[in-house]
Amino acid sequence: MRDVELHMPATPKAVPELRHRLHGYDYDVRLCATELLTNVVEHVGDGTTVYVRVVDLSGPGRARIEVTDPDPRGMPTVLSAAETAECGRGLVLVAALAERWGVERGPGGKTVWCEVVRGRGAADFGEVEGGGAAGRPIAAAP
């Protein structure tokens, strides 16, 4: 699989564009990437310039997805969404599909990343409470 590196505005229209640009990757990778992009639209701001990177990792079927935005402040957290809520499930999905995920802060912003093992079977969405990713702590930067 080829690596993908894109600079793009985080807009609702960019979500399907990103999904299309990742057409060679499987569903889990595309879903995680678009959920991370959507979080920037919702929590940093529509039109924020982001850097999206998807790379194959050593080992079969492993990919790392990174979305970097210029706002080093707001830290993503996994929270439970009410059954009737129309949003609030993005990081729940990422946490369920990814082997691990985390946030790296830098002077020019932050990178939210996850590592996906493709073809590992169905995700366990289980109960999620505030503070952790499906009961798991946020992974430390590699």
UniProtKB/TrEMBL annotation:
Which Pfam families does the UniProt entry name for this protein? HATPase_c_2 (PF13581)
**Keyword DNA damage (UniProt):** no
Where does the Histidine kinase/HSP90-like ATPase domain lie? 27-113
- Does the entry feature the keyword Transmembrane, yes or no? no
**What InterPro entries does the record tag this protein with?**
Anti-sigma-factor_SerPK, HATPase_C_sf, HATPase_dom
UniProt keywords, alphabetically? Kinase, Serine/threonine-protein kinase, Transferase
| Gene3D superfamilies in UniProt | Histidine kinase-like ATPase, C-terminal domain
User: Where do transmembrane segments lie in this chain?
Assistant: none
Query: What name is this protein filed under?
Result: Histidine kinase/HSP90-like ATPase domain-containing protein
Provide the species name: Streptomyces graminearus
Q: What lineage does the source organism belong to?
A: Bacteria, Bacillati, Actinomycetota, Actinomycetes, Kitasatosporales
